[in-house]
Give the backbone structure.
Amino acid sequence: MLSKLRTLCLKGIDGREVSAEVYIAPGLPAYTVVGLPDAAVKEAKDRVVAAVRNSGYEFPSKRITVNLAPAEIKKSGTHFDLPIALGVLAASGKLGKKPPARMEDTFFIGELALDGAVRPVAGVLPMLLALKGSGKTAVVPVGNSAEAAVSGVACLAASSLKEAAAWLAGAGELNPCAPAPEHKPSPFQAPDLCEVKGQVFAKRALEIAAAGFHNVIMVGPPGAGKSMLARRFGALLPPMTFDESLETTKLYSVSGQGAAGRLVSERPFREPHHTISDAALIGGGSSPRPGEVSLAHNGVLFLDEFPEFSRPAIEALREPLEVWKVTVSRVKESVAYPARFLMVAAMNPCPCGYLGHPTRECACTPLQVHKYRAKISGPILDRIDLHVQLSAVKYADWEALPKGEPTADIAGRVMKAIEIQRQRFKGETRANAFMAGAELRRHCVLPEGASAVLETAMNKLGFSARSLDKILKVSRTIADLEGQSDIKREHVIEAVQYRMLDKAAELPAGI
């Protein structure tokens, strides 16, 4: 007898419909799964056999063939257990002489424990979003019910195989997933920026970065406050919109790091260690999964001790910093993950950290300094909008300096600039950093006298064409922060000051 149930699989972060076909034929007992399954799907047969028997059903001692169609899509994960087990019960006549009518319009997702319990799985939200607006119903594990409710799809929660089988046969009921709670963005939890003494120039750069979603790199000696500033930076960003929360939650769900079935309501702040591999940073694996750059989507990626990251990891950032997505290609599949993050990088001026320090002598040789700086290539620096130099804070200044401006005041100015950008881009959740081509020329018209500034920057300081585009975008953000509809010459001059790492092939000796 043949039975067909419907389920879903993931292609990147997008759900795809899959048909789980089970055919039981006479012959020696055998169990075969076809349809490009991975190891976890092939192992499902042992879980299914035990779950069916421990749920009070007799497992058929016949030849069983399971086909997961379409066959060209790779099937991975343990969420195929429940539809396969129900398919076996339906094909063996345990759910009635005829296939239950509910099989046609219902999608089943869930991993089975050996005792028949339905366990939660990763990726439920992005899978269910593929059904949005279709009018179909989905049966999901109880542990995923809160996450499933967010999808807007009619979902029922099953705690065991026996419970799901009884509902499918029309002999029992399943509880619907609770309605999704109203989206309430959470403020970024971080200490106040006023606790950072001095570093007015760096704080100004971070304000510009937050207002226009510009990437930033900070260069300074140990103890100058680079990490303190970076860990407080997220509080300057606006609350997440519902669409941003949904996008970010999909990535966390696929990676198995879902927030207990809730929408991610606080902007991500990812701080990978410098020993991370390029695959873990960008994403990949035999069964591709999102990396740190995608888990930082709509949030902040903080790379402390930037030159200490491996050269392949640093160079792998080129694509996401330019097109805000990552494409992971394998022999059998290619998937794309969004990676629209704001990168904050921090580095020392040299390996020991004290080159140019007013009181401490640098112990590095010129060759060591050159090798250290050379790890950050020109193409990477070109993709970073703001370059900021931090100086050491003297004790006398530290003791005398009053508390700086609080985060709330800076965030208020940032929010006003962001509202200006949303109106400029017709209500879209966009930022100046994402402008390109004709859009850049339309919104970043140079004022009188500014062309000479850029010409000097390009000819004498060695700026690239991409650097000039970055300067235009930053100038536009500075004007937005001041509530100016037009870019002024002083805005361009200030933006040029944030390209200090572009000024020569080697960093200035005083850095």
About this structure: The first strand starts at residue 2 and ends at 11. The longest helix spans residues 407-424. Confidence is low (pLDDT under 50) at residues 504-511. The radius of gyration is 28 Å.
